[in-house]
Amino acid sequence: MFRPRPTQPSQTAPTPEAGPSTPPALTSDAAASGIDVPTQPVAGPSAENQSFVSKIMADNPYFSAGAGLMGIGVVLTVFRRSLTLGTTFAQRRMLVTLEIPSKDRSYPWFLEWMAAQSGSQVGKGKKPMGFRSHELAVETSYKQHENGSSEAVFNLVPGPGTHYFKYQGTWFQVKRERDAKLMDLHSGSPWETLTLTTLSTYRHLFSSLLTEARALAEASTEGKTVVYTAWGVEWRPFGKPRGRREMGSVVLGEGVSERIEKDLRSFLGRGKWYAERGIPYRRGYLLHGPPGSGKTSYIQALAGALHYNICLLNLAERGLTDDKLNHLLGLVPERSFILLEDVDSAFSRRVQTSEDGFKSSVTFSGLLNALDGVASSEERIIFMTTNHYDRLDPALIRPGRVDVHEILDDAAGEQAKRLFVKFYGNSTTTTQEGEEKGRILREDETPLTDEEVEQLGNELMRIVEEERSRGRTISMASLQGLFIRTGAKESLDGIRELCKSRGGEKAPYV
């Protein structure tokens, strides 16, 4: 017995807005035959017109499990890499970088130039190009005044990090990077690198910028003499540049200064002559004499007259070896004298262990090879000084290593007179209006006429010559100290007390 089904609440299907509908006859026939026929109307294109990708996405179970998302990730990765490669290629084509390591000579020049941009002008007629940075480093220096006082000068420069500045209308990026793992064994400072970046079109501005930085650095040493000392295997300035000493401030024996200066100027103008004859372009000078005769002072004055600097080298310095000596002599800064003071004392305590080896930092054979060996450098001027000429090995002072020998002896009578007139006679002072002559007087000193100065100078010459005939001499340093302490007339009374005997020798120093 069949029970009638309960009547379900009728649901009205939404009426389609457009599209074909299924005929009633087909619906009843399909229902009678047991075929499911959708009662909802189908809108849009038919199933046969669907795309291949849509069918895969609808029917493929792997895509629905996550393969589709992986494919999208691959596409995005490829796009990101393409964008990175494109950016790198554009940077290589459009940007140019310049790396300046801390070991390069232009590194301190550029840092000084950067410090000058913070508030000062570089050159005349140029606008200040200061730039601001939130990462700063300080460089402290001392400025010495003419009256003897000094003050500390603090220069704020960009520290490690990224900075930007504008130069000649073009923007530059500066990266100052510091590697704490790499250290300079000599100074103990970490390794640093400056990297400058700008548009490739303006790469020529790098040369202009570095030239300007060098000019700024050289402006601080203009009219001065820089003294370099050996710092490991490189030369570094020692202290602040010194004012150039006038040639007339050092009084030597008659004709000595003129002979040395003439020979040196002749050597500087014969570079081509040396090259044509295959002769090494080197010159060595030996100044010997008793202490206080003005050897080092004269070298300093000569360097100032020729606009040269001085490289001071101590052969007895700890850690200096034959290899370092050769390296230092091959890297001497341009336009510099090499000064070996008291060269006799470097090997005075040496103990010979073999035919050419010694127990010292620098061997004697190593010094000879550095001065005139196969690996010795060209275009070099060496000055040596010694107080004991007889202690020098003949191999050290032979021609080719030392070309000019000059003795700077104790004061002769004529030499002492010239120093006296220089102290108490008329002096020439250069001012803005020109050269002016006047006397430099002590507060308790009465002015002297030229005739009086001449008479006192002749008396001084007579006393010095008389003492020399007795084997008693006085050094130029002692005379200078006496003239500084006393007046013109008082100085004559203390001359004989300062004269010292040299073991009964009456002949000039040899």
From TrEMBL:
Listed transmembrane segments: none
Upper taxonomic lineage: Eukaryota, Fungi, Dikarya, Basidiomycota, Agaricomycotina
Residue ranges annotated for the AAA+ ATPase domain, each copy included: 281-412
InterPro entries named among the record's database cross-references: AAA+_ATPase, AAA_lid_BCS1, ATPase_AAA_core, ATPase_AAA_CS, BCS1_N, Mitochondrial_chaperone_BCS1, P-loop_NTPase
SMART domains with a match to the protein in the record: AAA, BCS1_N
Keyword terms, alphabetized: ATP-binding, Hydrolase, Membrane, Mitochondrion, Mitochondrion inner membrane, Nucleotide-binding, Transmembrane, Transmembrane helix
Protein's UniProt name: Mitochondrial chaperone BCS1
Recorded topology in the membrane: Single-pass membrane protein
Stretches assigned to the BCS1 N-terminal domain: 70-250
Residue ranges of the region described as Disordered: 1-47
Catalysed reaction equations from the record: ATP + H2O = ADP + phosphate + H(+)
Family listed: Belongs to the AAA ATPase family. BCS1 subfamily.
Pfam families in the cross-refs: AAA (PF00004), AAA_lid_BCS1 (PF25426), BCS1_N (PF08740)
PANTHER family: BCS1 AAA-TYPE ATPASE (PTHR23070)
PROSITE patterns in UniProt: AAA
